[in-house]
Prior knowledge:
alpha+beta; six-stranded mixed β-sheet
Amino acid sequence: MAPYPKYGYLLEGGAGLIGVILLIFSVRQGEEGSYTICNLSSWYVDPEYRGYASLLIAAAVRHKTVTYVNVSPALHTWRTIEAQGFRRYSDGMFVSLPALGGAAPRVSVETFDPRRDYKNILSAAEYELIAAHVDYGCVALIAMEAGLGHPFVFVRRQRLRGFVPNHQLCYCRDVADFPRFSGPLGRALIMRGVFLVLVDARAPLRGLPGLYFADCRPNYFKGPHEPAIGDLAFTEAVLFGL
């Protein structure tokens, strides 16, 4: 994606390569048109050269029209990230049991089929996003209510305690829709062997069975567009399973 780097930036010193930051760029559609998001991933500088780390991050976030996100910050980096001008857009993690949600008798859930014509349900950009994530191995479901479709995409995460299957919500239009459709979605996920769904959140999600863990793996952004909570599309969480 011109004029952006394909993979990121390297920091070189007398000993050769001393630092790296990987960047994942994607284009999103908003109410005012398209805009670019960049996921900062895998940032590292050799300990003896940490004083030069600011040069690396300055190069990485130099495009003022780009929104930069960090969705996997290590605890010891939070203060540094905030000092660089990043702000939180989610504070914690909600571990949910969506199958215990309400019955929603007028709602049906179907698996996204890339061969189907969704022109009256999904925008062209949304269809392409969902189809790409199905190719990445994600689960994509459409909750249908009164002829309207509400898409949800889930990415597989590591099993909790080594044996409990779980996925994370990585795309929806509005995170508030997940509690509303949680019952039918959760029961569709159980058919796939998934019992727990992780959801980024600022606070407990009313109507969603589960537990909220505050100040747990917050997400940060810097730039003109605050990302939507629950939208991890095209980030390392999907591409690398982080």
